[in-house]
Structure formats: structure tokens, C-alpha cells
Amino acid sequence: MKRITYISKLTYTLTNKEIEQIGKISVRNNRLINITGTLVFFEKMFFQIIDGSDKDVENLYNKIGRDKRHYDILKLKTEVDINERLFPNWHMNTINLNNNVDDLLRPIKILLQSVTETHSIIERYTQPTILKILNKGQNPLSIKPVASEKVILFADIISFTAISEKLSSEATLLVLNSYFEICSRIILKKGGEVNKFMGDGLMAYFKTEDVDNALKACMEIMNELRNLRQNSDENSPLKLVKSGFGLDQGIVIEGNMGSKYKKDYTIIGNAVNTAARLEKLTRQVKHSLVLSKSIKNNSKEPWSFVSLGKFNLKGQKNTSEVFSIDNNIVNNYDENSNFKRKIE
């Protein structure tokens, strides 16, 4: 058998009668498939535990996920191969804590609210892969490292050192947060995942079948940054936000790395190193996007690729041919005197 515990937020306020009706319908439906459990309602939140056969519990949880009466559904725990039900006599016992003034139940309300708030905070600091593992009810620390092929994206702000030397701490944070907000939103929309922020840069990765989405993400970020520069006030530091991008594809090791004091779920490998070096090469070749031959060869869409020549990348014995895209937004890298005067 399987057990799922989840918590969620209500889309709108429910009356006591509506809550009672939810309980009655749940009892009737769950009896037919031998699901047992409890549903706790408090403030504007649901907390529910359901037990039953693997298939029935999973089907019910998926159905719950489609219910428009709640959102931000957070799976707190999944237990498999259980032998005993927690509530064998309850096909669904509904408890409305808002109607209960018992002082003994007040700590339960506080506990459930604290759990929800804590998970919401953790979501902001944790990458999507870890959240997916947690939402499956698994312990991320138990996941073993695996070798897989990824498309790696490195990006950072051009001339950030020179820019940050001229800005206040508040203005520097404005630049960084605006940049990371744009990059993260677009990378996520294109199916990628931001793995980490590193100073004024970031590392992200995509599935191998999403090579074109990685390219589109770079182009879309550059376009939005250009709009940001054009639409910002003349004296705004956002006028200075430009970015370089490096893309490579290859085998990486994905998993937990670190020590007992600090863990990081990340990727390592030659493709990661190469993507980072390609991004640094943007300064030399004066193109905002530099990509490897593997990216060029594995793309499916008709990009206007151009060869930038062969280069000795740090750590590699042989020269590598690198490419870019013939597009005005890529070609206008430009760290000329005019841009430097803007920084001043």
C-alpha cells in the first residue's frame, strides 16, 4: 500500500457547510476504492493523509491536483510498501479546526502553518530538481549520482567588475536581481533549470532534446536585456546590463556533492567546464553567444550559425572550433569606449 501526506492553500473561502459536503462526498467515493485517511481544514489551508493501494492513491492524488478549489499543493511525504493504515476506520474523517476552540488543538494549527511557511521559503532557495524529489516523497540525500547527457548554459554580466566598482550596494543588487530574474524566468519557461548563481553569473542545464530551447533562451534573454536597457531611465544602472553566454553538450555527473556540513545537488564534467570557457570567450570574439560544435550539430531548427574559428580552450589539448549565430542581437557585444563611458 501507499500513503501520501500533502498540504495546500484554498483558492477561496469555504463555508462550514461546503467543508462538510466535501467530507461526505469523500467518504462516499473513498469507500468504493477502499481509500482511508483524514482531511484537516484550518484557516485557508487543507492538510490531508490518504492510504490505499498504490494505484488508487496515486489516481486520487492526481485528481486532487486538478481540483480548482485549492492551489500550491505540496506533497510533504510519500510512503510506499506500508503494511498498516493510519486510519483504518475512516474513509475520510474531516476535521475543521476553525470550529474548535480547544486550546490543545491550537499548537496543531501553529505547527501546520509553520510547516507550510517553511516549505514555501525553501522553494525559493532550492532548485526544481530537489523540489521534484521531495514532492515524490523521497529523501534527496539518498539519490545516488548518475551519468547523463545535458546541454549546459553559462551566463554572466559583461564588465560587471567595472560596473560594481562604480555602484552603491543597493544599485549593484538591483542589477543582479533584475538580471537573474530575467534569466531564471526565461530558462524555466524554455524547459531548463538554473542550477546555481555564481557571483554575477549562473549555470543552467537542459535535456539533450532541448538544444534549440537552450538557444532560444539565450536569444530571448538578450532581447529582454536590450529592452531593459532601452526602457530604463538614463541614469539607471540597468542601462548597463549586458550578458555573455556559453553553450556545450556532453556527459556530466549529476548528484549530491559536498560534505556532511553542506550539500549541493549539481553537475560536473568536461561539458560544464567547456560551457564556462566558451562564455569567457565571448569577450575575445566580440559575440554575446559562443557555442560548441556539438550544440550546432544537434540543433534541429534553421539557425544562422557562423564559425568563429578554432581556439585553445583552457584544459584541452586540441583546438576546438566554436560557433555563434549571425544575428544583430548577438553581434552587438561591443565593449567599446561608448559603453565604458556609460559605466563611468
Please give a structural write-up.
Its main location: other. With 344 residues, the chain is α+β, with helices and mostly antiparallel strands. It folds into two domains: 2-125, Alpha-Beta Plaits; 141-343, Nucleotide cyclase, GGDEF domain (Alpha-Beta Plaits), CATH 3.30.70. The protein has eleven helices and 13 strands. The strands form three sheets. Strands 6, 7, 8, 9, 10 and 11 form a six-stranded mixed beta sheet that branches. It has a five-stranded mixed beta sheet with strand order 4-1-3-2-5, with helices on both faces. It has a two-stranded antiparallel ribbon with strand order 12-13. Strand 7 (193-198) and strand 8 (201-207) form a beta hairpin. Helix 6 (169-189) packs antiparallel against helix 7 (211-231). The longest helix is centred in the middle third of the chain and has 21 residues, at 169-189. The relative contact order is 0.10. The model has no long low-confidence stretch (mean pLDDT 87).
Class derived from helix and strand content: alpha+beta
Mean pLDDT: 87
- Count of runs of 4 or more consecutive helical residues: 11
Count of discrete structural domains:
2
Distance, first to last CA: 66 Å
Please state the overall shape, judged from the principal axes of the Cα atoms: elongated
Please give the radius of gyration in angstroms.
Answer: 26 Å
Helix content: 40-55%
What is the CATH C level class of the largest domain, in words?
Alpha Beta
* H/E topology pattern: EHEEHEEHHEHHEEHEEHEHEEHH
The CATH homology group name of the largest domain: Nucleotide cyclase, GGDEF domain
Q: Which residues sit in consecutive blocks of at least 5 with pLDDT less than 50?
A: none
Look up the CATH topology of the largest domain.
Alpha-Beta Plaits
Q: Which quaternary structure do these chains form?
A: single chain
Architecture of the largest domain, CATH level 2? 2-Layer Sandwich
The biggest beta sheet is recorded as: 6 strands, mixed
Task: Report the β-strand fraction as a percent range.
Answer: 25-35%
Number of strands: 13
